[in-house]
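Our preliminary data section would be incomplete without showing what the modeling component actually yields. Below, a chain of 304 amino acids is followed by its predicted structure, encoded as tokens that our downstream tools consume directly.
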Amino acid sequence: MTAFVILHYRAIESTVKCVESLQALAGDNRILVVDSASPDGSGAVLAEKYAGDESVQVLLSPENLGFARGNNLGIRRALELFDPDFVVALNNDVEIFQEDFSQRISALYEARPFDLMGPDILSVFSGIHQNPKSLEPCTLEAVRRKIAYVQRSQKPVWMLLSSGQKHSPAIWRQVQRKRRAKQHIDSSVPMEDVVLQGACVIFSRRYLERHPEPFYPKTFMYYEMEILNWLCRREGSVVLYEPSLQIVHYQYMATKTEYRSILRRSQFVCACLLDSLRAAEELIVSAGEEAAPLPEQSPVPAKL
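Predicted structure:
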């Protein structure tokens, strides 16, 4: 059985569409929606909407826990309620149209037992295939480079330039495509030991038995998957990217709903990202990796 955990915040239409796409999937599936204390009351609306639906549960968090702790809350509750073989953590702005998605997960696990797996994620906005997020592992050096970059980005002139790009969907789409092209990632090929994109992450029972709350809890939003990559590499967990699994991703819905001002949205993103990076730096240093960071490795094709 497969449990799907959807993190909800304000964008109720997106969440309903996500749930509907999951309800159309074949197989034994359960859905748990975690409302992160949406101030517009949409969590209560969802709870009432699905009150008579045995396949959907709605969990109302009394506070906004962010991405990591919100997903941890939902994943732990899904394990308690459903005892699933797999838990799929989803953003509410995604949809799955492969009817046999759950059966594919099971078949892939039989061929190559994994701890985490990520599907091909197609961005509706940019047309980019977003998985893998990166081929480079999370290291202390990479974290510190990113901290310096974000700190520079917070300067007023750079913040205004970035906001100007985002004001034009055509320009912002082109910026994203150029950034992705520079990574030289072939998303048509299965890979192992890569940083997955967080819009959809598949956890196996064997991983969740060891880590029932898999995301590092000292972040609110952003950089969660890089930290999870570091934790998995340190433990030797099997992390796969599998392009035969496919979803579509409608980006920016939650932050668009929360922040109508693009400048304020950019400031929020930078602040959250900087907090997450500092949490990652603290984690890696506390583990004694400062003098000897984990060696960078090139991803290898998954043996499927």
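The chain has eleven helices and nine strands. The first helix runs from residue 12 to 23. Preliminary results of this kind motivate Aim 1 of the renewal.
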